[in-house]
Amino acid sequence: MKSNDWDVAYEWKAVALLALGFGLVGLDRWLIAPLFPSIMKDLNLNAQDLGNCIGILGLSWGIFAALMGGISDRIGRRKVLIPSIIAFSLLSGFSGIAGGLTSLLAVRALMGVAEGSFCPTSFAATADASHPKRRGFNLGLQQSGFALFGLALAPIIATQLLSVMSWRGVFALVSVPGLILGALMYFVIREPKAAAKPAADPAAKPAARASAHGAAHGAAASAERGNWRDVLKSRNIPVAMAALFCAMTGVFVLGAMLPLYLTEYLSLDTQRMGVVVSAIGFGGFIGQFGLPGLSDLIGRRPASIVGFAGTAVMLYLFRGLGAQPVQLFAVLFVASFFTLGLVSLLSGPVATEAAPLGMISTAIGIVVGAGEIFGGGIAPALAGFVATHFGIQNILWLPICAVLLGIVVSLLLEETAPARVRRRGGAPALELPASE
């Protein structure tokens, strides 16, 4: 079905597959956290080792997100997307044959390479397929798969499967869906059709460039590209990098350490722990398309400020709760709505609309890479240090401080939401060409 020469049917098929793909990224990445109490006993590990396992994946993810984002702008989306989804699915299965910390760290580092390559390329492919009016919503919807599968379903799946198989069997089982999805992407995902490059003033403000570049980011094959230094000249890119570091610190410290916090400090059993931790994913699932979708209406900057402030309030309330599963779930649900919504907002529409022409995947890769290296790599390792040396009960101060800093950083964002730009008299957003 096409509407005004826009291939709506392809748009929804592509977004659905890419959302499922990013969901499997989340599942494979976060399955280790709820399994770790069992892994600790078998491999004689501790909380610092968990932080290091989460962190090393984040570091390699961040480096390769920055590298492969630019490469996919040059060689195409399919050549990166399909090999990377197959690779991280196989590596997830290999996690189950780890015999100790060294082999587990090695597998997790390689998973970060594959998942980091998939991440910015999949965001760019979603932006390529999306009508400008739905770009924020679609990018959020795609990223919401990460929260639903990785942070909502993974704790439930892991803790329930542990009753019938070992943690090694769980890793093997969850590697299969990614191989199937890789085959489906091969037949469905298209490269964007080339389009004429509109004239652009390199000194133009990000808001004006965001409107103009809507017509061109699907045309990366024909656009004249610069290098990563050109991406950093856009004010919103370094601001988004810093803000995403703050948001990801909240996400990854909670995702990595809450299972231990709930079982060791609050003394919840494994099944109740799994249900409470799943609130991160269910709240984040709604937030990852809800907050970016809201930003289409109220603007990227106000939505970012609200997201950080809401997260700070909820985490402070969470810290004061005892072993009360219902209340813990409810507060964590709202906190995750905001903080995972921020991840989606900053790495999706904010990065997309600030990117130079033909460099959308490069821009996303740089923003995500910075957020992953610091928020997904260093922060979990730091949280492991805090838990080991100062007590697991003190880990929540790290995300609380990070999101408070995020409020200040968000004040520096320049507004680029097409609807807000039009209301202020900026250039109207142009439509993207349909993919071939």
From TrEMBL:
Pfam families per record: MFS_1 (PF07690)
Transmembrane feature ranges: 12-32, 53-72, 84-107, 144-163, 169-189, 239-261, 273-291, 303-322, 328-348, 360-383, 395-413
Listed InterPro entries: MFS (IPR011701), MFS_dom (IPR020846), MFS_trans_sf (IPR036259), Sugar_transporter_CS (IPR005829)
Keyword terms of this UniProt record: Membrane, Transmembrane, Transmembrane helix
Membrane-topology descriptor: Multi-pass membrane protein
Classification via PANTHER family: CARBOXYLIC ACID TRANSPORTER PROTEIN HOMOLOG
Name of the protein in its database record: MFS transporter
Natural source organism: Paraburkholderia sejongensis
